[in-house]
Amino acid sequence: MADAMISAVVERVAAIIEDQIQYEVNLVRGVEKELLDLSRKLEMIRKVLDDAESRGVKDQSVKSWLKKLEATAYEMDDILDEWNYSLLKHKMEASVEPEPEPEPENKVCCSFIPSSHICFNKVSVRRGTAKKVEHVKATLDQILREKDDFNFIISLPAPNLVPAPWREQSTHLIDLKKVHGLTIYRKKDVIVRNMMLSGSSTKILSIVGTGGLGKTTLAKLVYNDTQVKGCYELRIWICVSDPFDVVRIASGIVDSVGSETIPPNTDQLALVLQKLGASVLGKKFLLVLDDVWIEDESKWKDLKISLQCGAAGSKVLVTTRNERVAKMMGTLGDDMYHPNKLSQEECWSLLRDTSLPEKSEVECQNFEDIGKKIANKCNGLPLAAIVLGRLLQYKDLEGWKQVENSEIWKLEKIEFELFPHLV
Prior knowledge:
CATH topology of the largest domain: Rossmann fold
Number of domains: 3
Number of strands: 7
Low-confidence stretches: 21-29, 95-125, 158-166, 409-423
Structural class: alpha/beta
Strand content: 5-15%
Distance between the termini: 31 Å
Number of helices: 16
Mean pLDDT: 77
CATH architecture of the largest domain: 3-Layer(aba) Sandwich
Order of helices and strands: HHHHEEHHEHHEHHEHEHEHHHH
Oligomer: single chain
Helix content: 40-55%
Strand order of the largest sheet: 4-5-6-3-7
Largest sheet: 5 strands, parallel
C-alpha cells in the first residue's frame, strides 16, 4: 500500500511540473524546488519498500515505520492538491483573458509566459502551504534516518522501465445525454457542412481552444454524425497527446483500419509508414487526431505524405490548444474552429446533472440558487463544471455553501484527472 501511494505522489509531482510547462505557468518561486526534493527522497525510500513491506508483516517497528511513511505520503498528496487547485484557477481565469493590471510590489506572484499573472494575494495561503511543505520535509528526513537503522535491502530497478508522462486517452465514444449547450451542436453542424460541401478536396480542419472548453466533445459529435458516417469509407480516431510519436500514431491508424499488419514491437518508421499508406490507399477517410501539441513540422511531414495515399475528399480533423499547431499542420483560416463557452444557464445545467443525478426536480430546486453561483465560477468551461459537479455530488446543501464561499484552490477534493488532461 505504501509503495502504491508513494509511486502516485512521485508521478503527481512530475505531472504537475509537466502541466506547468504545457500551460506556461510556474509555481510560487522556491516551492517547485522543495517539491522536487521531496520527490527525490521518496524515490530513495521506494527502493527499499519491497524488503520493508515483507519484514513489516512480523516486525512491529518496521510496520510502524511504514505507517508513518504512508501518512507522510498522504500529507504530501494534499499539498499537491493545493497547487493543482491554483493551476485550475489559472486555466479558468486565462480563458477570460482580461487585460493585465499593474501589480503592487508587495504581492507574491506566479510568473507565466506570456505576460499573464496570477497572484497569491492572500499571504496566509502562501505561508500555510510553505509551513506544510516544511513539516513534511522534516518528517521525511526523520523517516530517511530511521530507514538506515533497519538496514533494508535495496531493490534494483528493472532496466528500461522509466514510464513516460501519462495522459488520459480519449476515444470516439460519446454519451449525448451529457452534452450540454446548443452552440456546440451548431458548431458541429458548421464543421459537418463544410466537410460535405468541400467535395473532392482534401482538407485538414482544426478545433482550437483552451483546456476544458470541449474540443474533444465537439470532435466526437462530428465523428459520430450520421452524414459523416455515410460519407467516409474509413473513420479513424487517434489520441495523440505528447510526445508526438509518429510510429505509435501510424501504427494506431493501421490497427484501426485492419487491412495491414505490423510486426510486433517494430520501431522501423519507414515500414510503419509503408503499411499506413497501403491501409488508406484509394479509400476516403476521416482521421481525427485528438490533443495535438507538436509544433515541429518535420515530425508531421512524413505522416502527412503517407496519408495522401487516401482517396480525394479525405479529411483530417485536429484538436489542439495552440493555434500555431493548427497552422503548422496546414489548416487554413476558414477551417479553424473555436468552441464557444457555455452560457451561465448551460453551465448550471451541466453542473446540476453531474452533481444531482438521482435528485427529483423539487430536490434540485433546493440547490439551484447556490448552484448557479458555483456554476458562475466555471467561467463557461464544461470540464470545470463537471469536476465541480463530481465534488458537490457527495455534499449536502451546507457543503455546497462552503464550496461557494471557498477559493477554488482551497477546495477539499477535486479529482486528479482534471489536471493532467484538460479535454
